[in-house]
Amino acid sequence: MDIALTIFLSCLLVAACITDLREQRIPNLLTYPAMAIALVAHAFLPGGQGVVFALAGLGVGGGLMLVPFLFGVMGAGDVKLMAAAGAVLGASAALSAFVLTTLLGGLYALFVLCLHRRIFAARLRAYKDAAVVAAATGSLNMPEPDPAQRLPRLCYGLAIAAGCFAHMLLAANDKSLI
Known about the structure:
The chain is mostly helical and 178 residues long. It has one domain. The protein contains seven helices and no strands. Helix 3 (51-70) runs parallel beside helix 5 (91-115). Keywords: Membrane, Transmembrane, Transmembrane helix.
């Protein structure tokens, strides 16, 4: 990958992490221009791979993240960030970055659960109690969590950045996940 595109993607990922941590969102003002820049860069830069390469990466990156979005697991900003990263990286690299993002995102989620294990344990007890009542009555009523028992939201932009950086590190050392 061209050094200019590597620097561009790195800046995009850092900016996304900062806004995700501060605001728990990744703004369109960051993702849409990044997609456009990646398409133009691949079309015209000497090291660019072409618009089809960028479009395929955009589709793979965004498409893979669309499934968790449709299940309500993550926000639209996460989908668009991965699509923008895919436009820079290309389809094959976007798939690799997605796999790494998923693995690192799982570790991140476990870390957050460990930090908030009392809240997590209380939520599990409430769900267990609801399951026991459901087994006895045949009616499942999931309890609304007490605001004090809410687990923090994950800033998945961090996992996306970690997955993309891990992919770039592997690629720089001529190693590939896929």
